[in-house]
What we know:
Elements: E1 4-7, E2 16-19, H1 21-28, H2 34-49, E3 53-57, H3 58-80, H4 84-90, H5 95-111, E4 115-118, H6 124-137, H7 141-152, E5 157-159, E6 172-175, H8 178-181
Parallel strand pairs: 1-6, 2-3, 2-5, 3-4, 5-6
Helix pairs in contact: 1-2, 1-3, 3-4, 3-5, 6-7
Amino acid sequence: MSARIFPFVGSPLADIVYLDTSFVWELYNPHADPIRQAKCIAFLDRLHQAEVMIVINSWVTQELRHVILAGVYYEEAQRRRMSWRQLFRQDKSLMPTVIQSIQQVEVLIDALPLIIRLPTHLDLTTDAVALDLMETYNLDAADAYHIAISRADGINSFVTLDQGFGVVGQINLYTCDPTLLQNQTTETAILLFDET
């Protein structure tokens, strides 16, 4: 059984949702597609209006920092005709721009009402759950840890644009990603959290 996939508009809402890095970055990415970004902003507003508890954790923050770092270096690397990693190793002059961008995004995240930053529980149990998710669903490690960490906190509803989440069973996904929405659920209720 794959994820129960809901569109941003007209779907039932969970009491608590986890914002995946792909969604958070879409909100603040200066190069985002304006239509998709507007859909994400409207869904975040819908969550606020419905007083849904919104959760992120340091796993999201760390991944977001990496995305910003890679993005800043990638733009300059394209101009210099080299890989962003090669440029990063050779030239640290872009780091002030990276740090400023990270700080700006994190200030905006912290200013959002109803967002709770949960601590990240990385322990042997979470590692085992993440590894099982990787094996069962062919997930990359980052997606597996998002889900494993959230499950440890009793959360099974995710807001994401990441297609990797779509294959995972026993979770709810809220998205505007057209590929994920091809498998949109016809169910009218969300899956409740199951501790088993």
